[in-house]
Amino acid sequence: MYPGRNFPPRRQNRRENVNESIRAREVRAVFPDGTSEIMPTAQALRKAQELGLDLVLIAPTATPPVAKAIDYGHYQYEQKKKQHDAKKKQHVVQVKELKFRPNTDDHDYDFKMNHAIRFLGEGNRVKAVVQFRGREIAHADLGKKLLIRFAGDLAAHGTVEGQPRMEGRNAHILISPVKAAAKPVSEKPPKPSPPPSSPQS
Questions:
Q1: CATH topology (fold) of 19-75
Q2: For the chain (length 201 residues), average pLDDT per consecutive 10?
Q3: CA 129 to CA 138: how far, in whole Å?
């Protein structure tokens, strides 16, 4: 005979904030006509069902908890829509890396600078990296000068975080986007004064 196996308890998909699952003995019940009243949960549930609605706990930590008579399906839809809209408004700041060589030509430099302007305009940070190979490390000062030039050319679009730093065989600098300044409210130009009237003879 095989020994019994201990399985973890199956999660019960219980909605503890809706109808009969509400555990509070009394609630502040809010109804569609705007009225609210503190009453036993069973009474509030009966009244909600008479209206063809669900009793949904919307403020469980209040004293007493607040429950609202609403259509639970519609309530869930509205909650998911709010979460979706809030997630769309969130912008995750990314660090976009651009790699250079100490002898990067002007065409490649301008190409990468345009990328940096776009990245900063999207609200992301830019990490410019100069990579040294072989004996190029002896001329690390050229890489730092390139990074300082790059940061200066982006001064209107980003703010430099510190000075160029060496990490192994690479030099890098970090640039954050400039926060858009509020535009001053333009004053209305004064109305032109009417021409002086000629004296009547």
A1: Ubiquitin-like (UB roll) (3.10.20)
A2: 48 66 94 93 94 93 93 88 78 85 90 93 91 85 90 91 87 84 42 55 43
A3: 17
